[in-house]
Amino acid sequence: MSEGRLVLILGGARGGKSDFAEELAAELGRDVLFVATAEARDEEMRARIAAHQAARPPCWRTLEAPLQVGRALATVPTPNVALLDCLTLLVSNLLGSLTGDDPYADGSYERVRGALDREVVDLVNWQRQSGAHLLIVTNEVGMGLVPSYPLGRAYRDLLGWANRRLARLSDQVYLVVAGLPVDLKRLARRAAAEELGDG
Q1: pTM, rounded to two decimals
Q2: CATH number at 6-198
């Protein structure tokens, strides 16, 4: 049985979720593997990646895995802590590699969902089998406007589905708002206990 924890960390853009994840990773162990799903496709993205790399502790290792992350993790020495940043870009990478402008019309939505399901299963299996802590950073995209174009709606739907599935399987789930982490599973347990107490 796994000794490590599966931790899902959600939040909005620039809300502090990556900072919180990095702080938690450092608390959990010295041997940290940063798993990057971003691809440097333009100058702005190259600059962002370089800034993030410079801010991380120099002792942390990095694994670049834009797709098939669980399989990539299985090819390197098992760390004490793996920090995947982020699921949001993994879903985007899957959409970009497997679909066109309208995943609902061309039938590719189910193909992408199947590939995303395999990604989630592989990640969870790696964490359970390795015994490492696995922290997964992702965006909460369901609180904004409904995207006006099919690809945006498919992206929102797929990421929302993956977030829900991982939240069910995770040992801890945090929502980070304005830099403040809220332990959602603890709140859910407390609410359930209070409801039982009222009954």
Answers
A1: 0.92
A2: 3.40.50.300
